[in-house]
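Title: Prediction job returns without error message
Component: structure pipeline
Severity: low
Priority: P3
Assignee: unassigned

Description:
Job completed but the reporter wants confirmation the result is attached to the right record. Sequence as submitted:
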Amino acid sequence: MFTGIIEEVGSVRAIRRGSSEAKIVVACSKVLGRTGSLGGGHLRGPETAIGDSIAVNGVCLTVTAMDGGTFTADVMPETFSRSALSELRPGSPVDLERAMAADGRFGGHFVSGHIDGTGRIEKLARDGNAVWFTIAAEDSLMRYIVTKGSIAIDGISLTVAETGAGFFKVSIIPHTLAETALSGKTAGSKVNLETDIIGKYVEKLLGGTK
């Protein structure tokens, strides 16, 4: 489980594709070392170990190897097909967050690291010191996206400011732009989306899904 409060922006060192799977190597520092209080105020506990979970642009991946300032994780074909990880290249910046510590502060919202689908940035517009992002998404995702509700974009916990037919808007403050990979996104960029899990549970309990 994650909070959507990004700890660090890492960089893709390599992507090694095989016939049925791939490995991603990410260069980073904070998410591998012993830390105290970080952005959002929550504690992260001891050093990262093999088998730990790290959200990479909102996708929960398992650490399979570490070497100095990098970690390696396996990526299955389904993960590539359902997420924007398929567009990453060596040098791409990625948002990183370790799984939430049980004794830490909860700064964002419940983020599972299981991507529901992808969206595409349609427009960016400055509004004072903030930037409005207009993101197009399929109806299958929009049904769970509500005004003033929570959304995870590339693993970043954000509040939905407006919704419309096939799109939603979020307003990004300077701190979030400075501390995440959103600062490098442009119109046309593909992003990972995870909708609020509460809505999906409610729908199932009401008999809407299986």
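Comment from assignee: result matches the submitted record. The chain has a mean pLDDT of 88.
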